[in-house]
Every structure is written in structure tokens, then in C-alpha cells.
Design a protein that fits this description.
The N and C termini lie far apart (about 45 Å). Strand 9 and strand 10 form a beta hairpin. Helix 1 packs parallel to helix 2, helix 6 runs parallel beside helix 7 and helix 7 runs antiparallel to helix 8. With about 350 residues, the protein is of the alpha/beta class. It is built from 13 helices and 14 strands. The strands form 3 sheets. Strands 1, 2, 3, 4, 5, 6, 11, 12 and 13 form a 9-stranded mixed beta sheet that branches. A 3-stranded mixed beta sheet has the order 8-7-14.
Length: about 350
């Protein structure tokens, strides 16, 4: 069995592979085997790999399963102690794997971790998708060390210390294979967005831990598949976030949180239309609410199973006790360090 397998999910991403794969090979080959799992691309990604990178192991999937199920199917074909789920638009750095491997080897209670995620366009700035590790507030809104809503901080070393977090970014997720499968993997029904937060929350409920190890750092382009402001992205984010809450919230919080989210989601819809003129995003939020209501019964068994597996309330401390919406928009608090000062 391999110790570490870096698995890159690809769909029509030849341009990303041309740009970023070299860094992954050069900086990882001494410590990991490298796979590209292809979601039935219709471009010439596979031909490119065969011609230019025959050393990379290729997993060919029969159709585009999306991010979540694409990884679920691909990882079943990989035998390793640790998986690294790595986006195709990530440039890694020399010895980036070493601190992650050493930390996981020395902390068996930890299921997953991530490096510090910086922006490929500006190496001195955090990247939106995960920055230096993620949290959610008590209403389910995600934020990071280094990014709160659309405010992304410069990296001045302010978060250069390891820290337990609630969720690690799906752009570069280092996870024990045993924990991945024991938790049920990524929820395939999400297709994309919020699926890594959902997985990490389930790991927390099982009594496992998630950390950020900023001694390791990588650069992420971000938005390569669905950029910010795309109505499809808005739809998936709202629908999946509501579903994640329904699955994972403790029973005594569920109804209260869902009532608050009803008001806040519709407020967000009207705000995107009236203040920003984004009719597509407004419609996407309404559509997401309807979609959640329609498929909510499909997750009843998941909820019962997750709640029955709850071993600890420690995950509650990793959910911020305040509303990030109130802190950000009403009180003008824009950075993670201000939230906890």
C-alpha cells in the first residue's frame, strides 16, 4: 500500500494541467504517488497526460460525476494510507507534503488537515476557498482564518501557527483514507460546494479532528469551474449549505436555525437584486430553497445515522457562537482576528 496518494480530479481541464501539474510532480514525487482522475473529459486532457506525463497514474471515470462523487469513485481505486484531494488549479511548493505527513503521523486523533492556501494571482494574499482553515457560525455561514465573506486578508504571517479548525478546504484536503471511508466520503448528492465542510463536520461529530498546518503552503487559482457570481454556484452553495445543516445540526438547534435561515436567505435574495442588480443570483436563491424543501426527505436517514454516531460535543465549540452576518454587516468586523479579539 502507498503511504500518500495525491489525487487530482479533472474535467476538461487540459489548460489547468498544462499550467499546474508540473509543480505537483516536481514537488511531490519523492513523497507521494500522483493520480489524475478524469471525469470523462471531452477535451484532450488524457492525450496530454499520456504524451507529456506518462508517470502520472490515470483513473478514467465513465461520466462526469461532479466533484463529490468523482472523488468517491476514484478514491475507491487508490490504495494509500493518506489521500490528498488536490484541485487541478493549485501550484504546490517544495516540501509542501512534509509538514502535513509529519503532523498526521504524530497525531492519530486528527482525521484531516490542510496547508495554508494563498492566491495564485497574489502570493501575499489568502485565497478565498480555504485560506488558513475554516469555521462556520451558529447559522451555518462559513468563514476562514484570512477570509470573511468577500473580505480576503493579506498574509502577513498572522495565522502562521497550527490550529484546530472545523473544516479544511476541498482545494487541498489531506485526509486519512480510513477516516474518509468511515465517514462515508463526500456526499455525492451535493455535486459540488459545501461538500468538504459537510464531510469535516461529520468527522467532528465522530470525535475526529481537523487542523490547518500553515508551515505547508500552496497557491490556488480558484473559480476555475464556477466563478464567483455564477447563478449555478449560488444555487449549489445555498441548497447544499441548508442540506448540510439539516444533516448535522443537533436536534435542539435544528428548528431555530432553520427559521433564522428562512429569513436570512430571502433577505439575501432581495439584497442581491435590489442592491447589486443580480437577477440571476436572486432567482438561484429562491430555486435553492425550493430544491432543498423538495429533497429534504431524502436526507432523513442520513440525519438519524449522523446524530446516532455523535460521540462528542466538541464540534460545537468549533461553530462560532455568534452570527457572522451580524458581525460583518452590522458591526463592520471584517477579519478573523477581530472576531475573536
Amino acid at each position: 500500500m502507498e503511504k500518500v496518494a495525491v489525487v487530482i480530479l479533472n474535467w476538461n481541464g487540459k489548460r489547468m494541467l498544462e499550467t499546474y501539474l508540473n509543480s505537483v510532480i516536481e514537488c511531490s514525487k519523492q513523497e507521494a504517488d500522483i493520480y489524475v482522475a478524469d471525469n470523462a473529459s471531452s477535451d484532450d486532457s488524457l492525450e496530454f497526460l499520456q504524451k507529456h506525463h506518462p508517470e502520472v497514474k490515470v483513473i478514467q471515470l465513465e461520466k462526469n460525476w461532479g466533484f463529490a462523487e468523482g472523488y468517491n469513485k476514484a478514491l475507491k481505486m487508490v490504495k494509500a494510507r493518506y489521500f490528498v484531494l488536490l484541485n487541478s488549479d493549485v501550484e504546490v511548493t517544495h516540501h509542501w507534503l512534509t509538514p502535513l505527513i509529519e503532523f498526521m503521523d504524530n497525531h492519530p486523533e486528527v482525521a484531516a488537515c490542510q496547508p495554508k492556501l494563498l492566491a495564485d494571482a497574489n502570493h501575499d494574499q489568502f485565497e478565498y476557498a480555504g485560506a488558513a482553515g475554516g469555521f462556520i457560525d451558529h447559522l451555518g455561514y462559513p468563514f476562514c482564518r484570512g477570509r470573511v465573506f468577500d473580505t480576503v486578508e493579506d498574509d502577513n504571517g498572522q495565522y502562521d501557527y497550527p490550529m484546530e479548525v472545523m473544516w479544511a478546504t476541498g482545494a487541498c484536503l489531506f485526509i486519512r483514507a480510513e477516516d474518509y471511508f468511515k465517514a462515508g466520503g463526500l456526499d455525492a448528492r451535493f455535486f459540488a460546494h459545501n461538500e468538504e465542510i459537510d464531510l469535516c463536520w461529520r468527522l467532528n461529530i465522530m470525535g475526529r479532528k481537523v487542523w490547518c498546518i500553515p508551515e505547508s503552503f500552496v497557491f490556488h487559482l480558484g473559480g476555475g469551474t464556477l466563478p464567483q457570481g455564477n447563478p449555478r454556484k449560488t444555487f449549489l452553495n445555498f441548497r447544499n449549505n441548508l442540506t448540510m445543516l439539516y444533516k448535522n445540526l443537533p436536534e435542539d438547534e435544528l428548528q431555530k436555525v432553520m427559521r433564522w435561515r428562512w429569513w436570512l436567505d430571502y433577505l439575501a435574495a432581495f439584497q442581491t437584486l435590489l442592491l447589486n442588480g443580480h437577477w440571476g443570483d436572486c432567482k438561484a436563491i429562491f430555486k435553492a430553497r425550493r430544491a432543498f424543501k423538495k429533497w429534504k426527505p431524502l436526507f432523513q436517514e442520513d440525519r438519524e445515522r449522523i446524530q446516532a454516531a455523535r460521540k462528542t460535543e466538541d464540534s460545537q465549540k468549533l461553530r462560532a457562537p455568534f452570527s457572522i452576518v451580524w458581525q460583518y454587516y452590522a458591526k463592520g468586523i471584517k477579519t478573523f482576528s477581530q472576531l475573536f479579539s
